[in-house]
Amino acid sequence: MNAPVAGAAEQVFARFLDLERQTRAARTVEQLAYSLVNDSQALFGFRHVALVIAGKVRAVTGVSALDPNAPFVAFVEQAVAQLFKLEWVQQARVVAAEQLSVPVRADWQSLSAAQVFWLPLIDRQGAVFGGLWLARDTLWNPSEQVLLAQLGDTYSHAWLALQPRKPWRLRWNRKRRLALLAVVLLGLLIPVRQSVLAPAEVVPLGGRVVAAPLDGVIAEFLVKPNQTVKTGDLLLRFENTTLNAQADVAARALGVAEAELKANSQRAFADAESSSKIDLLAARVEQKRAERDYARELLKRSEVRAERDGIAVFADAERWTGKPVQTGERLMEIADPSQAELRIELAVGDAIALEPGAQVALFLDSDPLQRHLASLERAAYEAQPTPGGQLAYRLDARFRDAPPRIGLRGTAKLFGERAPLALYLLRRPLAGLRQSVGL
After folding, report:
1. For residue 118, with 0-12 CB atoms within 10 Å meaning exposed, 13-18 middle and 19 or more buried, which class applies?
2. Contact 201, 397 (CB under 8 A)
3. Domain 336-437 in CATH: superfamily?
4. Angle between helices 71-85 and 102-111 (to 10 degrees)
5. Annotated domain spans of the chain
6. pTM
């Protein structure tokens, strides 16, 4: 017995049920978007379909990677935006070209098919969150419109099941966005306290600088960094072999000059020529005595001693041992460990208006959770190059409480005057813009 042949209506109904099944089988939003614009091709024979969600095209028939700047995408978004303004998107309907503006109609003729059907996607509250732009060359008959309307409910249900939350463009309507913009603009006018970060170091306050007393080579460092010293303690010793020889030669030359002066003084009573040389020889003796005293003074200077109590502040003794130095070159500093200040290097690009007494907060690298408060004492007017190669202003600040250990480094936060939040956030971008465009 032969099975009955299904008619055209039964075949359409079977395709319709299969289309609903495919829609519900989608597991992700991307799969569902692809199904909405491609799977109903066999049932409705459209040329192309564009899926629009919250005013933006999400998928197009036959396109795997959507270009948001494509002419067709821009046309569909403009056309749907005009439909929303006319409030003609609530119901599934055939779109008439006369409903749209002249530029959109011109793009319609070149980019889309003549007959377009708008199928809205509606949420549970009855608001339209998207829709399908279906275009083909033949007219949409009433039966197809009924099927599409029923299919729109299925599409809406499937989309809300995978993406229950509204897109932000719908959650934030025009009125809310304007209100948010007004709040942000008002917030930018709120006065806030300007602040800037800069590297800083704890340095001695009122320390005594120990400089090289002569040109020579350092033979030995007798103290270590941060070692406590007393007045008169030997700090370092210069190589004194040459100085000893010079002092010995100067002493012998003085002895020779004194002996010659004595001999001529004894002969002066009988010899007129010897009497005339006495003044010259006496001057020579004084010259040789001065040379001997200077040589002894240099020899004495080869041993550098502390001139006050404190700690020896320098980096490394090995750095100086065996190194030739010149007179006046800084070797170390003797400082009181309880007297210290904060030295800050403020980069030129970060400089803000700072007044004496401005608040400074120091966060040490060794203890970043503890804050040490200080007050700004001095600020240099001229920027100087730092060891890192950038220009910076030198600032000195006095600690309000007990200072940290001398030599510690960290980051200082300097607080300036109050200014609008917009200026605080855009100060550096505005400065860069002025440098680039010259305004």
Report:
1. buried
2. no
3. Efflux pump adaptor protein, beta barrel domain (2.40.30.170)
4. 140
5. 8-171, 207-239+302-335, 240-288, 336-437
6. 0.51
Residue 352 has what DSSP assignment?
-
Alpha carbons within 13 A on the beta-carbon side of 216: 21
In whole angstroms, what is the distance from residue 134 CA to residue 61 CA? 10
8-171 maps to CATH 3.30.70.1560: no
pLDDT tens track of the chain, all 439 residues? 344 444 677 887 888 888 888 888 888 988 888 988 998 888 888 999 999 988 889 999 988 888 888 999 999 999 988 888 888 888 888 998 888 888 898 988 889 998 999 999 988 888 888 899 999 999 999 888 888 888 889 888 888 888 766 664 555 566 777 888 888 888 878 888 888 889 999 988 877 888 888 888 888 888 888 888 898 888 888 888 777 888 788 888 888 877 877 777 776 656 666 566 777 777 887 888 888 888 788 888 888 888 888 888 888 878 888 888 888 888 888 888 888 899 999 888 778 888 888 999 999 988 888 999 999 988 888 888 887 778 888 999 999 988 888 888 999 999 988 878 777 777 777 766 766 776 5
* Integer Cα distance of 314 and 316 in angstroms: 6
Fold designation for 207-239+302-335: OB fold (Dihydrolipoamide Acetyltransferase, E2P) (2.40.50)
